[in-house]
Amino acid sequence: MTAEIDRALGFAPDYDSPVPYMARTREYYKSIGYDPYRWAHYRDVPFSPLRQPLAESRVMLITTAAPYDPAKGDQGPGAPYNSGAKFYQVYAGDTAAEHDLRVSHIAYDRKHSPATDAKAWFPLQAMRDAAAAGRIGELTPHFIGTPTNRSHRHTVEVDCPEVLSRCLQDKADVAVLLPNCPVCHQTVSLTARYLEQHGIPTVVLGCAKDIVEHCGVPRFVFSDFPLGNAAGKPHDEASQAATLELGFRLLESAVGPRTTLQSPQRWDAEGLWKLDYLNLEQIGAEELERRKQEFIRQKAIAKGLREQAA
User: Fold this and answer.
1) What is the pLDDT confidence band of residue 306, given thresholds at 50, 70 and 90?
2) Which domain of life is it from (predicted)?
3) At what angle are helices 21-31 and 182-197 packed, to 10 degrees?
């Protein structure tokens, strides 16, 4: 009867709603013996309006993707989590040069995202095109890479001030931020908040709606896509351009904080991919134990790298 009513009313299936990443990760880590992660959450959200039209603004691109280093193991499409490929300090790259940035170090959706088109998570070319077309004034001389830290304090007290300093050095008027994994979404949300507190308008383009809105950001373009595709569908320049344009429009139109604009694009017709990410109903006990041991191993590697970077 329920299915008949749904068809009659045109309802979508219950599963075809944004993936509950916070709940999924909480239950997953609990199942492998770790305390649930506490996600950043604020009541108040800062908001800085545009100071001049976008066509006259210098725009900064901020990413959590990592520069490819062949010495750091497999970082190709579908590669398993590789903590050795992570970075732990804010970095900058020349926006006039080409870059190979990858997401193999983080928990993007390895089952449903092909990870074969960096433009799906790093829209440098789309932003160059926007500048050439006069949609924005210009790109900053550099883009910024900000590390994914589970520590809220480290992100807010160490990484955010460094990102702000680099934005000020490049005279950025506006910042566009793109995350990949669940914790990446928290990282860029905290960063966006910090920049807004210091007068730089921001927009987050992302795929984890619950994490970003729980933290609280000024402007958020939500694409209901698998993690790793915050800039649009892979190998689809029209999708990527449309996603970035939504960000620009939101920068121009938002009248206050916590403004979310959902992209009308769909990943596919059915939406069944949303059932898979860290879904304990689909992971057996043996696989959970294997993942636990691998998590312990990767955590030890990451700890050593953090200590070296400190």
Assistant:
1) low
2) Bacteria
3) 130
